[in-house]
Amino acid sequence: MSKPKIVPVLPQTDEPNPTKIPNERMTTPAGLQVAPVFDAFVKSDLPSSVTPVAFYSCLEDLVNTIEPKIQDALKTRSALQAQIDEFHRKTGPIEPSKYITFLQSINYLVPVPESVTISTSGVDEEIATIPGPQLVVPVNNARFALNAANARWGSLYSCLYGTDVFGPPVKGPYDASRGEKVTCWVRKWLDDVLPLDEGSHAEVTSYECEGGEMRPKMKEGKFLGTREVNGAKHFLLENNGLKIEIVIDKTTEVGKADTAGVSDVLLESAISTILDFEDSVAAVDAEDKVEAYKNWRGLMVGDLEARFSKGGKEVVRTLNANKTFLGPQNEPFEVRSRSLLLVRNVGHLMTTPTVLDKEGREIGEGLLDAITSVALAKFDLEKDSKLNKNSPENSIYIVKPKMHGPEEVKIACDTFDIIERHLNLPPNTVKLGIMDEERRTSANLNACIAAASSRVAFVNTGFLDRTGDEIHTSMEAGPFVRKKNMKAQPWIAAYENRNVDIGLACGFTGKAQIGKGMWAMPDLLGKMLEEKIGHPQAGANCAWVPSPTAATLHATHYHRVDALKRQGEIATGGSRSTLEQLLTVPIIEDPSAWTAEDKRDEIENSAQGILGYAVRWVDQGIGCSKVPDINNVGLMEDRATCRISSQLLANWLHHKVVTEEEVIAAMKKMAEVVDKQNANDQNYTPLAPSFDGIAWRAACDLALKGRTQPSGYTEPILHLARLEKKKEQRAESK
Ligand SMILES: CC(=O)SCCNC(=O)CCNC(=O)[C@H](O)C(C)(C)COP(=O)(O)OP(=O)(O)OC[C@H]1O[C@@H](n2cnc3c(N)ncnc32)[C@H](O)[C@@H]1OP(=O)(O)O
Ligand SMILES: O=CC(=O)O
Ligand SMILES: [Mg+2]
C-alpha cells in the first residue's frame, strides 16, 4: 500500500506563519503594536478609571516583566520533557522508587512545603460556603453566556421531564404519565432533603404560610419567605445553603392535576459559572478576542443582550433581575438570580497577534486576557449597590488553566500583582482558580497552592487535560491503555483523592472551592443524575456541568450530600493516596493482547472525535461541540478532549501499535460519518471525498503529529488552521 500523502497545516520552513503576516497596526505610547480593532476597544470600552494610557502602560510592564518569565517556564517544560523522554528510553520498565528519585533529581518534583494554609480573604459566599454546581460556558457565545449567567435558577420539573431521566426525551403535547413520574420523583426527593415534621410531601394537600410559619411544618430555618408572581405563590426554602422555590399555581395544567397545586419546583442551580476564554472557544485573532472581551464586558456592566429566533419567535435575552421575597414578618429581601461569574483565561503557552511587542513578536495571550478581564471587571467593582454586583465582596475570579508546577502558578500571581498595582486595585483583588490538570501540578500541588496562598479561590481536577498530559509526559514509557479504561487506572483515583486531601489540609473549607470535573455527555443526564452525586460525596464543593439543565439536576446532589460536612469527615481521615500511586504510568505491558478489532475501534473513536471537533473549529470558529461518538452518544468535545484523542493516537503510532496508514484509513472512514452527522448544517463543508480542505489537514496533523506538539496541546495546530481558513474565506468573499 502506498503511503497516503498528508499536506501538513503547520507552516513549512520557508512558508510565512499566517499570524506573522504584517497587518496595519497602531503603535501605542508604550511602543506596543496593537491591532486597530483592539485599540478601538481599549479607547471606547474600558471603564473610565482605566485610561488607555494606564492600560497600555500596564500591558507594557507585563510584556517586559512577565513575558520573559513565561518564556523561561516554557523552556523548563521542554527541558523536563526531554529528560523524562530520555529516562524512559534508557530505563525500561519503571521502578517506582527510582522513578521518583529521578523526578526529584531533575526538579520535576520540588520539595513539599512544610505546612500550607491559605489566607485568601474577601471571597463571595458562592465560592466559600455554598456548595453547588459550576457551569462552564464559551464566552464568545452571548446567547449561551447570558443563559449561563441566568442559570442560577432552574426548573426541576422541566429538567426531569425534558431530559432522558425518564426515558428518551419526548416532543409534542404534555405527557401526563411522564409528568406524574416527575412529580413523584420530586416529592420523594423533597421528603429526603426537606422532610416534614409529619407525613410526606406526597400527601400534602396545601402549602400555606400562617403567622410567619410554613404549613406543613418542617425543620426550623428551612422556610425563608414567599413571593407572588402573576398569581402564583412561591415558597422559598433552604437546605445545605441552597434555595428551593415550591411554586403553587392551579391555573397551569401541571398545578391543576396536583392535589397541592404544585406547578413547579425551582432550584438554585449554577451557583457559579466560568466564562471560558480557553478550551471551549476558538479565538485566533484580534477580531475574535474583541468579540469575546465584549461579552465579558456586557456581563460585568450588566447590559449584555442577545437577539435570536427560537421556535419561530424572536427572543431578546438579557440578565435576570434579583427576586424579591417577603420574610416571615413580611420584611422584603432580595435573592440573587445570577450565577457568580468567574472567567477562565488562556494558559501560558499561546501568543496572540492582537498585540505585538516592540520587536514585532506576538505577546502572551494569557497576559492580554489577564489585564483585559481585570480592567473590565472594574465595571462590576465600581457599581454602587452590592445587590447588583457580580461580586459583593469586590473580588475578581480568574481561572488559570494548564499550569505546570509552582513556578508557573507564581507567574500567574506576579501577573495579577502588576495589574492590581497599575489599575489601582487592592492587592489580592484577583482570586485565582488553579486547574490541577497538568501532571507536574498534581505532583506538586502543595507547592502550587503555597505559591498562591493569598489568592487561591479554587483547585479543581480536570480529568480531560490531565489525561492528555499523562499520555504526553510519559509518551516514551510505552503504549497507553485504551481511552475507555483510563478512568479505572490507579493514577486517577490518587489524583482525585490527593487533590481533595491537599485542598482540605491547606484550609480550603469555608474559604475556597475544591472542584471536580466536567460531565462530558450532555445528553445522558439520567446517568449523570445517578453518578455525579459522587462528586460532593468525594468532598468537592463544586463540580462542572456542561449546561444549565445539567446544573439543575446536579444541584439535587448537594441537597442530599452536605459537601462541607463531608469535607470535615474526609479531613479527619488524613491522606488517602501516595505520590507513587499518582505517578503510576498507565501503560500496558503487552499490546499484542489487543485484537485487530480493539485497535480499529480505538483509532476510529479518536478519529471521529478529532474530525467532528476540528471541522467545526476550523471552518466555523466553534470551540465546543457536541459530537456523536461511534455509538451515537453526543459527547462534549473541546480542546482538552481533542488533546486526549490526539495524544492517544500519537502514542500508539509511536509504539507501533497501529500504523500511519491505518490511522489515515480510519480518518477517511470517519470523515464520511462526520459529514453525514453534519448533513443538516447549511454552513458545513464536507471533508470527503476530496480530503484536502484545511480542516481535514488540521485533523490529520492532530492525529499524526501529537508527539511533537508542546505538552501535546491542540491549540497550535487549530489556531494556524483557523487563521488559514479565515484568510481563505476573506479571499473568497472578495
Ligand atoms: C475540559 C473542559 O475544559 S470542559 C469546559 C469547556 N466546556 C464547556 O464549556 C461546555 C459548555 N457547553 C456547551 O458548549 C454546550 O452545552 C455543548 C456544545 C456541549 C452542547 O451544545 P448544543 O448542542 O448547542 O446544546 P443543546 O442543543 O443541547 O442545548 C442548547 C440550549 O442549551 C443552552 N446551553 C447549552 N450549554 C450551555 C451552557 N454551557 N451555558 C448556557 N447555556 C447553555 C443554550 O443556550 C441553548 O438554549 P437556548 O436555545 O435557550 O439558547
Ligand atoms: O478543563 C478541564 C479539563 O478537564 O481539562
Ligand atoms: Mg482543561
TrEMBL record:
<dbReference type="GO" id="GO:0006097">
    <property type="term" value="P:glyoxylate cycle"/>
</dbReference>
<dbReference type="GO" id="GO:0005829">
    <property type="term" value="C:cytosol"/>
</dbReference>
<dbReference type="GO" id="GO:0004474">
    <property type="term" value="F:malate synthase activity"/>
</dbReference>
<feature type="active site" description="Proton acceptor">
    <location>
        <position position="344"/>
    </location>
</feature>
<keyword id="KW-0460">Magnesium</keyword>
<dbReference type="InterPro" id="IPR048355">
    <property type="entry name" value="MS_C"/>
</dbReference>
<dbReference type="InterPro" id="IPR046363">
    <property type="entry name" value="MS_N_TIM-barrel_dom"/>
</dbReference>
<keyword id="KW-0816">Tricarboxylic acid cycle</keyword>
<feature type="domain" description="Malate synthase C-terminal">
    <location>
        <begin position="599"/>
        <end position="693"/>
    </location>
</feature>
<dbReference type="InterPro" id="IPR006253">
    <property type="entry name" value="Malate_synthG"/>
</dbReference>
<keyword id="KW-0808">Transferase</keyword>
<dbReference type="Pfam" id="PF01274">
    <property type="entry name" value="MS_TIM-barrel"/>
</dbReference>
<keyword id="KW-0558">Oxidation</keyword>
<keyword id="KW-0479">Metal-binding</keyword>
<dbReference type="InterPro" id="IPR048357">
    <property type="entry name" value="MSG_insertion"/>
</dbReference>
<feature type="domain" description="Malate synthase G alpha-beta insertion">
    <location>
        <begin position="174"/>
        <end position="222"/>
    </location>
</feature>
<feature type="active site" description="Proton donor">
    <location>
        <position position="638"/>
    </location>
</feature>
<keyword id="KW-0963">Cytoplasm</keyword>
<dbReference type="InterPro" id="IPR001465">
    <property type="entry name" value="Malate_synthase_TIM"/>
</dbReference>
<protein>
    <recommendedName>
        <fullName>Malate synthase</fullName>
    </recommendedName>
</protein>
<keyword id="KW-0329">Glyoxylate bypass</keyword>
<feature type="domain" description="Malate synthase TIM barrel">
    <location>
        <begin position="341"/>
        <end position="584"/>
    </location>
</feature>
<dbReference type="InterPro" id="IPR011076">
    <property type="entry name" value="Malate_synth_sf"/>
</dbReference>
<feature type="region of interest" description="Disordered">
    <location>
        <begin position="1"/>
        <end position="26"/>
    </location>
</feature>
<dbReference type="InterPro" id="IPR044856">
    <property type="entry name" value="Malate_synth_C_sf"/>
</dbReference>
<dbReference type="GO" id="GO:0000287">
    <property type="term" value="F:magnesium ion binding"/>
</dbReference>
<dbReference type="Pfam" id="PF20659">
    <property type="entry name" value="MS_C"/>
</dbReference>
<dbReference type="GO" id="GO:0009436">
    <property type="term" value="P:glyoxylate catabolic process"/>
</dbReference>
<dbReference type="GO" id="GO:0006099">
    <property type="term" value="P:tricarboxylic acid cycle"/>
</dbReference>
<dbReference type="Pfam" id="PF20658">
    <property type="entry name" value="MSG_insertion"/>
</dbReference>
